[in-house]
Amino acid sequence: xxxxxxRCLRGACAARRLAPLRAFSSITDPSILHQLKPSKPDxxxxxxxxxxxHMHDTTMNLHLDTSLLDPEGIHPDKIYRNPSVGLLYEHxxxxxxxxxxxxxxALLAYSGEKRGRxxxxxxxxxxxxxxxxxxxxxxxxxLPESSFMTNRERAIDYLNTRDRIYVIDGFxxxxxxxRLKVRVITSxxxxxxxxxxxxxxxxxxxxxxxxxxxxxxxxxxxxxANRYTEGMxxxxxxxxxxxxxxxxxxxxxxxxxxxxxxxxxxxxLMPKQGVLSMHASxxxxxxxxxxxxxxxxxxxxxxxxxxxxxxxxGDDEHCWTNxxxxxxxxxxxxxxxxxxxxxxxxxxDAARFGSVLENVKYDLMSREVDFKDNSLTENTRLSYxxxxxxxxxxxxxxxxxxxxxxxxxxxFGVLPxxxxxxxxxxxxxxMSGYTAKVAGTEVGVxxxxxxxxxxxxxxxxxxxxxxxxxxxxxxVKKHDAHCWLVNTGWSGGxxxxxKRLSLKYTRAIIDAIHHGELENAEYEDLPIFxxxxxxxxxxxxxxxxxPRNTWDDKAAHDRQANExxxxxxxxxxxxxxxxSESILSAAPTVA
Length: 591
Known about the structure:
By secondary structure, the chain is α/β, with parallel strands linked by helices. The protein contains 15 helices and 31 strands. It starts with a helix and ends in a 7-residue tail after the last helix.
């Protein structure tokens, strides 16, 4: 009886639920039925529907006038000029293979086959107005103007086949006196978000007044170069025209090529105005004391300049004028391999909504990022706006530098963790630019190897290195800056035997420089390299300050030190002509 009563009750409830539907079934007018359907929220409208709903809304950041790119010959159906971060996220996840939102809120994207810069495929156009200025050779490889125009046309043809084009208009250079208007044209949302982060972002008024750009990047990296075009050696081409102020990218989707293209242009333009462009990071203390950190990728520029006790000016590209320093960029591009909150809290916390994680692995279910996984590349990267660092300056500029710190990653394990440099030694080590190529930064590099990169940035120089060295010497002398060599590489043996110097010790050394401790420390001379090494430094074991003390086999250390000294001397032969005797005397001496 109870079961029968329950069945009757369920039947009555069902009848009540169905009554409204029976009433609607008698309606035959389709227009009335349509009105009864719930409307879709905007998030689920397709593109055309969304335009109809928001046509009046200027906050959509859509440049509906596709004539914007008429001067370049690009005529897409849709142009997204400086779109919102949210729109770029949506398009990346919808239209790009592999792009997802990580659990920390960052956009995770992949650059395809190329996961580092391609320096062997970089070309500079050989043109009458600039060819006498360029340091031609293995760094700046000549490209005929006709080949550049062929590549440009190829990129434009490809971009014209895309359903949607993204345009990022922004600025290079935080000092208005030296600022350049930059336009990036790309078909990938990930590239657009990357350059939104890396350029100095334009306001709405800036966009209204933007006019013609001073530098344009055509990024058609999804499409290969024609290897039969004169000057091409592969299907990848990164070519720069100094006279046209244009860059064309084909055959590589690695985002770092764009930022380095802008930096290369600054490296050409700034020295002509007596300004030193630098592959360096910079920060500032509470008393206005600025430090410059020279160094190649992987030496610690980003990590050491992101100091909770100091204000970040920038992490990679700066200029030194007669009035101070300014950042070229509006964002940071940090190496993400083994990133942790314990070691680098400021950078770790910058991985959030609006940032780009490039070529990192993640858990398919949780979307948690595995920063230790290097199966794709050692060169995993994180791009974020500079204001994601809590103590970054609101305007990325500062007073004249007090300390110039030259970072090196010594794979031989024979350079000291820190040395105080004379002005002559500073010029010698600046022109030498010794470090190790850290695995992953460039395509094909699997483990650290000794290399010399003039001015700690040879891949991005345009003039002969002596041009930049003369500017540095002039500014160090004029502004009485202190110069230091800091090794973030190996101790206790070469790569494979010793261990990389602890980050906490390197940070303690940098703190001692900033607090003035090392300026007044007691020093001893290091043979062979003739460097002045402190006998003690707070929070750093004294025995590691002299690298020979960390080797079990002292004779092996001496052999290794002599080998590196020979490499220094051999490398500097190309700079001997025209270099003063005082700088030449700063070279190592082989025992």
